[in-house]
Write a structure and sequence with these properties.
Layout lengths: L2 H16 L5 H16 L1 E9 L5 E8 L9 E3 L4 H8 L3 E3 L11 H6 L6 E8 L2 E11 L7 H70 L4 H28 L8 E4 H19 L2 E6 L5 E4 L1 H17 L6 E9 L2 E8 L33 H11 L3 E7 L3 E9 L2 H10 L3
Helix pairs in contact: 1-2, 1-5, 2-5, 5-6, 6-9, 7-8, 8-9
The structure holds adenosine-5'-diphosphate.
The site of adenosine-5'-diphosphate has 22 residues, from helix 8 and helix 9.
Length: 417
């Protein structure tokens, strides 16, 4: 086989192997080995620009000369530096005629340099580093073919370095996101805890005062109590989120009537629905349908969805709940013909604090916690929840709940989180 084809094959092999290497250093060493071998050089190095923009530092070299790695090579007094400045490959076959050659590396390593080819590692016009080979064996000159080989390897190095940068950025972004998420979790925990005591006092005293003052200030006190209850609902949601996330929440399974769960939730929003002119309805296939579950948690999930249905449906609309038994599960669909949810938001509405409309412009209260609590409560039972919606047409939230604990265990194996 002719040498040129062999070289091309070696270059292709380097490209293929690089795809399987995750560590930058290993990738660069592979490139250096290929550079020495294919250009028949004594040694090869990759140099990295220092942040000051004045010097280069050896990142890796073959043979592995550790002592070089603390050495700074001035950009304006070295051949690597010339390639860096010109953004072009520089070939020097007789170093004695190159006044720009920095002798520092030779002094430190004890190996004199006779010839050099330095090639910039370019990525989108920016020099990420220099790939350099020294001392072509047999006292031969570096050729145009050597330059092509080095430039090909430098392109591989550019991608490897860039991938490592991106990987590092990704890691930093992930760490930052985790930090922010923890801050959010801590904020929820601290706020809900700190608000609980003063709110309890407001509720206690205002209820006591309402009894005391009789008819005269009833309206004002009712208004205070209503507002305080609303605050309590928000704090309760925050506490539920925190309890589930910190693993404190548990499911206390009892036999519960599905009909009762739905009727209780509908009763809780009846006043609000009437005031808005939204019709409530339900259809339960089997009125004796029972489920083994935590009535409080399932009740909160259903209530949050029905509450949203009423809040996001205009006058004349409806919110309708349908329950049926499907093998091993209760399927509950809560349908409204309200404003619907834009497609782009559908994947996010079950996230904590997510609201479709900006909190500042929207008409409804809430903190974007209702659906995340609903989802967590249903998933604690081994169930699933999802939504189908189109903007302007309405939404259907579907809950699939295992009928009992055994089914929930089986469901864990069926559903992939
Ligand atoms: P919030 O309590 O602030 O409404 P949720 O977690 O309950 O928060 O809901 C998240 C967002 O999903 C809401 O702000 C709303 O934009 C959207 N949404 C939820 N249910 C419906 C619905 N039935 N119709 C239209 N939008 C809805």
């Amino acid at each position: 086989m002719n040498t040129q084809i062999k070289r091309m094959q070696r270059l292709l092999e380097v490209g293929r192997t690089l795809n399987t290497i995750t560590e930058l250093r290993d990738a660069l060493l592979l490139i250096l080995d290929a550079a020495s071998e294919l250009t028949d050089s004594f040694g090869a190095s990759i140099l990295d620009p220092e942040p000051d923009g004045e010097s280069l530092r050896f990142l890796v070299n073959t043979p592995d000369l550790q002592m070089l790695q603390t050495l700074l090579i001035p950009i304006d007094e070295s051949i690597a530096g010339l390639a860096f400045r010109k953004k072009e490959t520089v070939v020097v076959n007789d170093i004695s005629r190159a006044p720009r050659h920095s002798k520092r590396a030779d002094e430190v390593s004890g190996f004199p340099t006779y010839s050099v080819t330095a090639c910039p590692i370019l990525f989108r016009g920016e020099v990420l580093g220099i790939l350099e080979v020294i001392n072509k064996r047999g006292a031969l000159d570096y050729t145009g073919e050597d330059v092509t080989i080095l430039e090909t390897l430098a392109a591989h190095a550019a991608i490897a370095i860039q991938n490592a940068h991106l990987q590092q950025q990704l890691e930093e972004t992930r760490e930052e996101a985790q930090r922010l998420d923890k801050m959010k979790t801590d904020f929820v925990a601290i706020t809900s805890h700190e608000l609980r005591t003063p709110l309890g006092l407001i509720l206690g005293h205002s209820t006591f005062l309402r009894e005391l003052v009789g008819q005269e200030h009833q309206e004002q006190l009712d208004s205070i109590i209503r507002s305080a209850m609303r605050l309590k609902e928000i704090i309760d949601s925050m506490t539920r989120v925190h309890n589930i996330q910190s693993g404190v929440a548990s499911v206390r399974r009892r036999t519960v009537s599905v009909r009762k769960l739905i009727l209780d939730a509908l009763a809780a929003v009846r006043k609000e629905a009437e005031a808005k002119g939204v019709t409530l309805g339900f259809d339960i296939e089997d009125s004796d349908l029972m489920i083994e579950g935590d009535a409080d948690k399932i009740g909160v999930a259903i209530l949050n969805i029905i509450q949203n249905g009423v809040a996001f449906t205009n006058q004349g609309g409806y919110v309708f709940a349908v329950a049926e038994e499907v093998p091993g599960y209760v399927k509950l669909a809560i349908k409204d013909n309200g404003i619907g949810i834009p497609t782009k938001d559908l994947n996010h509405i079950f996230e904590r604090f997510y609201q479709v409309e900006s909190h500042l412009t929207r008409k409804h209260g809430g903190m974007g916690l209702g659906l995340s609590v609903a989802k967590m409560n249903i998933e604690l039972h081994g169930g699933r929840i999802w939504v189908d919606s189109s903007e302007g047409q309405g939404s259907t939230f579907t809950i699939l709940l295992p009928l009992d604990a055994d089914q929930a265990k089986a469901a864990d194996k069926v559903f992939i989180s």
